[in-house]
Amino acid sequence: MQTNFLVIGSGIAGLTYALKVAQDCPDKDVIVLTKTQSDETNTKYAQGGIAGVMDLDKDSFDKHIEDTLIAGDGLCNRHTVEIVVKEGVERIKEIIAWGAQFDKEPDGDFKLGKEGGHSEFRILHHKDVTGKEMERALLSALAKQKNIQLVSHCFVLDIITQHHLGYLVTKSTPDIQCYGVYVLNLNSNKIEKIIAGKTLVATGGNGQVYRTTTNPAIATGDGVAMVYRAKGRIENMEFIQFHPTALYEAGVRGHSFLITEAVRGDGGILRNTKGEAFMKRYDERKDLAPRDIVARAIDNEMKINGTEHVYLDCRHFSKEKFTEHFPNIYDKCLSIGIDITNDMIPVAPAAHYSCGGIKTDEWGRTSIKNLYAAGECASTGLHGANRLASNSLLEAMVFAHRAYKDAVTNQNSNTSLGDGANFPDWKSAGTNAPKEMILVTQSLKELKLLMSDYVGIVRNNERLHRAMKRLDLLYEETEALYEKTAVSPQLCELRNMITVAYLIVKSAEFRHESRGLHFNTDYPGKSTLVQNIVM
Questions:
Q1: Which distant-in-sequence residues (6+ apart) come within 8 Å of 74 by Cβ?
Q2: Beta strand residue intervals within 261-340, DSSP E
Q3: Own/partner pairs for 269-272, CB < 8 Å, 24+ apart?
Q4: pTM, whole model, 2 decimals?
Q5: Catalytic status, residue 511
Q6: Which of 28, 114, 460, 494 is found 20 to 30 A from 509 (Cα to Cα)?
Q7: Of 211, 271, 291, 515, which residue is the catalytic one?
Q8: SS3 letters for 466-486?
Q9: What is residue 425's DSSP assignment?
Q10: Separation of alpha carbons 218 and 41, rounded Å
Q11: Which residues on neighbouring strands pair with residue 74, listed in sequence order?
Q12: Contact 397/87 with Cβ under 8 angstroms?
C-alpha cells in the first residue's frame, strides 16, 4: 500500500490534518488509520470544552497567554503559547464552519464557561459532550472528501526507517527518516506495509498505564512508544495530569467517568467526607485553582481522612440549569442512584492527560524527517509542567493545521513512493500463537498497579526506584514473549505501555524538584534550573 499522506489516529488532530491536506491536494491520496472504530478516540470523551478568546471586549490574548504560562509552572514555551492562543480562534471558526455546534445564549452569542486556572469566561462547549460533537462534525466533513480513505481496525506496529534496511540508527543519527509503517490489519489478521510520503502521528494519550483513568481503553501510548523505538525524541513524560474529579464508583477500575471541571466553573464545591469545603486551605482560588493543585489537595484530604474519595457538592444548583448544561453527567449519576439535587457526587482523581510526549517544533515536525505529531501524543511546549483546562483541543487543531501547511509546502522532500519496494515485509516466521493470554493480562495488571501506587500524584525516590526495578522485569518478560509469539493488539499494547511507563519513571527520576504535575516529597521545592527532560 502506498499513499502521499498517512495519518495514524482519528481524533481531532488526525482528522483536522487529514481534512485540510485532502482539500488542499485533491489529486493526492490520504489514508487515516485507527485501531478500533473511527470515532473511538480521546477526543470523544472530552467533556468540558475548548478555550478561545472569542470576546475581545471582555477578554484578551494576553490574559489567556498569562493563564497558560501560570498553569505551566515555568516550563511552557512562550512562543508556542502565543501561537496557540492567537491562531486558535481561527481554528475554532473553521470547525464551526465544518458544522460543529457550540451552545449559545438566547441573543446568539456563545455561552462561555470558566474553568480552573482561567481568569475569564472563555470556554466554548456543547453541553457536556464537546469533544464528541467536534468529532462528529469532522467525520461528517471527512466523508465528503473522495481522496481520503479511513481504515478502521488497523493496529500500527512500527514506524519504518533506515533501520529496516539494515542501517545502524541511533538517537545521534542526524537524518533518520520515516518511510511509512507496518500495520496489523485486524480484519484480515495480516501484517501489511504502508509506504508514505508524509506521516502524522496523532495517537492520543497513555492514561491506560494507570489503574484508574478517564481515558478510553485505546489510550495506550502507542505513538510515543513507536517513535521512541524509532529513535525519535521524547520529552517531559513525568508530567501526567490527574483530573481532580472523576466519578468514584466502589469497586470500579479502569475507565472512570469524568465530571468535567466546568461543573466547578459553574459553582460546584469540593467537600471532604466531613462536609468541609477544604480548597480554601490550599489555594486562594479555591475550587478553581489549576488541576495540579486541586488534585494534590484532594489526594491529601483522602489520606488525612482515610477515604477513597471526596465529594463535589452541586445541591445548590437548580435541576433545570444542571440538566441543560450537564445532561450526560446528570444521567450517569442518576443511573447509579445519585440525585444531584439531594446528593453530593463522590469524586477522586484519575489519570487524565499527558503533558509530555513526542517532541515537536512549531510546525509539528518531530526529530525524524517526514514524520509529524499532533494532539496529546505530542509535546509542543504549550502545556509545560501542567495543562491549563480546555487548552488541549485548541492545541490539537492549531498544530494539525501547522503540520498540514508544512507537509503540503514541502511535498518535494518526500521520498519517492517507489522506494517502498526496498523495505522488507514484516518478519513473522518462527512465531507461534500465544498459548496463554494470562501472561499478557497479568503483566498488564502489574503494570497498572505499580504505576498507580509508585508513580501517581505524589512520588518519592524510593517509589520511583521500586517502579523501575519492576518495570525492568516486566520488560524482559514481555520482550521474550514478543520474540516467540505472533503479534496481537493485546501484546503490542502491553509492550507500548511498558515503554511509556519506563519513560514516565525515568523522566521523573531525572527531575530533582517538584514542579507542576510532578511532586516528589524528596525534592519539595523548585529548582532554579528550569529544564525539559528530553529522552
A1: 384, 385, 515, 526, 530
A2: 269-271, 310-313
A3: 269/312, 269/313, 270/244, 270/245, 270/294, 270/297, 270/298, 270/310, 270/311, 270/312, 270/313, 270/347, 271/310, 271/311, 271/312, 271/313, 271/344, 272/301, 272/305, 272/307, 272/310, 272/311
A4: 0.93
A5: no
A6: 494
A7: 291
A8: HHHHHHHHHHHHHHHHHHHEC
A9: P
A10: 7
A11: none
A12: no
Q: How confident is the model at residue 418 (pLDDT cuts 50, 70, 90)?
A: very low
pLDDT band at 424 (very low <50, low <70, confident <90, very high): confident
Architecture of the domain whose range is 438-520: Up-down Bundle (1.20)
- Mean pLDDT value across residues 335-342: 94
Contacts of 54 (CB under 8 A, 6+ apart): 89, 92, 110, 112, 122, 124
pLDDT digits (tens, 9 = 90+) for 128-177: 889 899 999 999 999 999 999 999 999 999 999 999 888 899 999 989 99
Q: How confident is the model at residue 31 (pLDDT cuts 50, 70, 90)?
A: very high
| Confidence tier at 433 by pLDDT (50, 70, 90) | low
- Fold type of domain 2-47+130-238+355-422: FAD/NAD(P)-binding domain (3.50.50)
Domain with CATH 3.90.700.10 in the chain: 245-351
Which of 266 and 376 is assigned the larger pLDDT?
Answer: 376
